Amino acid sequence: KTSSELDLRNQADVEEFFSNEKLEIIIDAAAIVGGIWSNNKYSYKFLMDNMLIQNNLIKAAHEHKINKFIFLGSSCIYPKLAPQPLKEKYLLTASLEETNQWYSIAKISGVKLCEAIFTKYKKQFISLMPTNLYGPNDNFDLKTSHVLAAMIRKFHDAKINNNKEVELWGNGSPYREFMHVEDMASAILFVCENKINIPLMNVGSGQELTIKELSKKVKNIVGFEGETLWNKDMPNGTPRKLLDSSFLNKLGWKANIQIDIGISKTYQWYLNNI
User: Fold this and answer.
1) Distance CA 183, CA 204 (A)
2) In this predicted model, what pLDDT tens digit does every residue of 35-45 receive, in sequence order?
3) Dihedral sign of CA atoms 45, 49, 50, 51 in order
């Protein structure tokens, strides 16, 4: 069912859905998401709606005796200035990044709910914390999209409109790790097919670069020949977010899609679907 057919924020509707379906595995990828602008603009919605969605799903899955529940979070659950690379044990050790704290707090509560069920009831309620994801079917809206999709849109629009420049937020210095959604899908499948002995694991590619380096890659792949201007009055966000994915890597999973190939595939999908 789509979100228009089943409102996961409505507990009664979620309960009815679980009662009518024979479910064996739940993969909770449902969330209200966005970049810095939308996190700040819709702080209440980001916190409340995300908690309602995940709480209803986790509660229903537990009460309907689902043994495998995979909860997808985000690397933003970790403290803003945590040591790098980010380890699972750093959760709740310091303050969050202010610009996305609303989404982060919601996701942290979901992680802890799953951990409680994993520990007390010995069920496979596993939380996976992905790094920055991108790929086909991404959100390319300039106000609500994440950084890589927003760059594709901005550089493409500037190219077809023969603009001389593109403006990006911040100064380009923060480091970010990116992973193609096909790699994320393979990680989810891996966790579905194997028994996992810890309730929280990072899922990253290990491919880290600055936002400025990313902008150059996207600009070249799109084929925009103008200038890139950096609006330094706008926030940078967290200085660095590199995940330590060693737990999952040691179990036998690794990401495979290189960033340049992934961006090219994503831009081609965008061209075919705009």
Assistant:
1) 9
2) 778 888 889 99
3) positive
For 176-231, give the DSSP string.
EEEEEHHHHHHHHHHHHHS--SSSEEEE----EEEHHHHHHHHHHHHT--SEEEEE
Other Cβ atoms closer than 10 A to 259: 20
Distance from C-alpha of 60 to C-alpha of 63, rounded to nearest angstrom: 5
- Neighbour tally for 225: CB within 10 Å: 11
Annotated catalytic residue: which of 44, 90, 103, 134? 103
The answer to whether 47 and 34 have CB atoms below 8 angstroms apart is: no
For the record, the structure tokens of 231 come out as 């609006």
Whether 270 is a known active-site residue: answer no
Q: Does the global pTM surpass 0.85?
A: yes
Task: At 244, give phi and psi (nearest 5°).
Answer: -90, 105
Cβ–Cβ under 8 Å, residues 26 and 70: yes
Say how many CA atoms lie within 13 Å of 135 toward its Cβ: 14
For residue 167, pLDDT over 80 is answered with: yes
